[in-house]
Amino acid sequence: MARLIIIVVTLFLSIPIVNAQLKDEASIRIILAEQTSEWNKGNLEAFMKGYWKSDSLMFIGKSGITYGWQKALDNYKKGYPDTAAMGKLNFDIIKVKRLAPDYFFVVGKWYLTRSIGDIAGAYTLLFLKIGDKWVIVNDHSS
After folding, report:
1. Which of 6, 25, 34, 94 gets the most CB atoms within 10 Å of its CB?
2. Domains and CATH numbers, the chain
3. Which residue pairs from 12-21 have beta carbons closer than 8 angstroms and sit at least 24 positions apart in sequence?
């Protein structure tokens, strides 16, 4: 009987933790949905709201590693100078995993449907909760 009580109490106490994790994961999925929407409107500045606005933001792409929010925005503008180059973005989220209370790891695929030719690749994102906001602090897209 004592063992059953311990199990029930443990389950009852874990409910807030599970709810917090589900809420955090939902917040991250919302950020990615908002990024998709803004990209598809051709609004790179609004797309970048999902990223940490810091010189320490790390972006790893085909050209190597770059640091900084502004550098990432500049690279997006250079690589996607107009809506034809941007096309329509779609994310296929494969995995969202909590690494720690303030870190989430996301793995997925991205697709751009474009009149100039479709392209696709994969990504890994590291989200960090700063204050009450989740932001991407590391993006590895290929």
Report:
1. 25
2. 2-141 (3.10.450.50)
3. 21/98
